[in-house]
Amino acid sequence: MSTSAFRPPLDSNPNGPPIPGLIGNGPAMQKVYRLTRTVARSDASVLLLGETGTGKELIAKAVHQISHRGSGPFVRVNCGALSESLLESELFGHVRGSFTGAVANRTGRFEAAHTGTIFLDEINSTTPKLQVILLRVLQEREFERVGDTQTVYVDTRVVAASNRDLMVEVDADRFREDLYYRLNVVPIHLPPLRERREDIPDLVAHFLTYYNEKNDRYVVHIHAQAIDALRSYHWPGNVRELQNYIERVVVMATGDELTVDLLPDAVLRGSPPPAARGNRAVDLETLTYDLVQQGVSAAGPQEDNLHAKIVNRVERELIAQVMTSCDSVQTKAATKLGINRNTLHKKLKEYGLEGA
Question: In Å, how far are 95, 100, 297 from 103, measured between CA atoms?
Fold first, then answer.
């Protein structure tokens, strides 16, 4: 190995991470750890905010594990993965015969999390009806199962997460203001990886150890050029993206060193910051001009038709761009677009982008 190579120690933090299971000791994460420890001592609701892949679920688990509820259940619900009716049943349970397919009574996730913690991921995806029910649960600690009149009382702590700015959602009348304040007792902002680059070596060392053991490999060195490339990359997918790349490296490496040629092209090329990426967004004026040139008149009765065409073109272009940036992974693209996966699937079919 050359003297210019970077070699991560087997235990990059001999004193142990600030909170078990969490990696990173930079200033941004130290603030997160302090807030996590402080709020864990209470029963206050917690709102985790941050981009996809920043580790919100890990913090939710940490809040639970180091609290007095740590011996109780930790229940996770992805609110963006289910329709309104299914999510209501999932959260609160149902009684037999309450709807087609309800062949038996079912306990909901809130009930299952009694004496423990429920983690509501993608809380911004909930509908107005569900938001009303959630507000009641937070205020009164009670609800009824779907199709039932009997009130169920629970002692469950709520930790919610959103990858969107909920105040923007409130201003757009997509999220109830009273529910927002009930959830936002203690907000914890998870920094994106590009704002905590000093933690990248520790994260790489951790993932190397994990995937070496999982795949019976021995990739324990990182060349200096590789670590420089990893530090320079902008990480739109955050820690989750880094984890995926390290797994790929461990599988593909023929020796014991992570060399720069093993990194994906995206890392080697680098990536522009979010503002620059936003400059590639759809240009409404150009789209309008294109439509007019195609023979669509903006005058008289055609005006509404023109507006609809422009909106559809913009939406199609936006979805196509996001699908490309997410390597056609629909779940990831839906999260970035702020819609659920079923809605995205319908849009892809509607716009002929199923192969995108």
Answer: 8, 8, 56
What integer pLDDT is reported at residue 106 of this predicted model?
Answer: 81
For residue 337, give the H/E element and its range.
helix 330-337
Closest CA to 24 of 310, 239, 321: 239
pTM for the complete prediction? 0.70
Distance, in Å, from the CA atom of 12 to the CA atom of 84, rounded to the nearest integer, reads 45
Mean pLDDT, rounded, for 19-26: 84
Per the CB < 8 A criterion, the answer to whether 231 and 190 are in contact is no
- Other Cβ atoms within 10 Å of 270 Cβ, number: 10
Cα dist. 331→163, 191, 224, 283, 334 in Å?
Answer: 13, 21, 34, 26, 5
Phi, psi of 264 (to 5 degrees): -65, 160
For the record, the structure tokens of 309 come out as: 């065409």
CB 219 within 8 A of CB 257: yes
Amino acid at 292: V
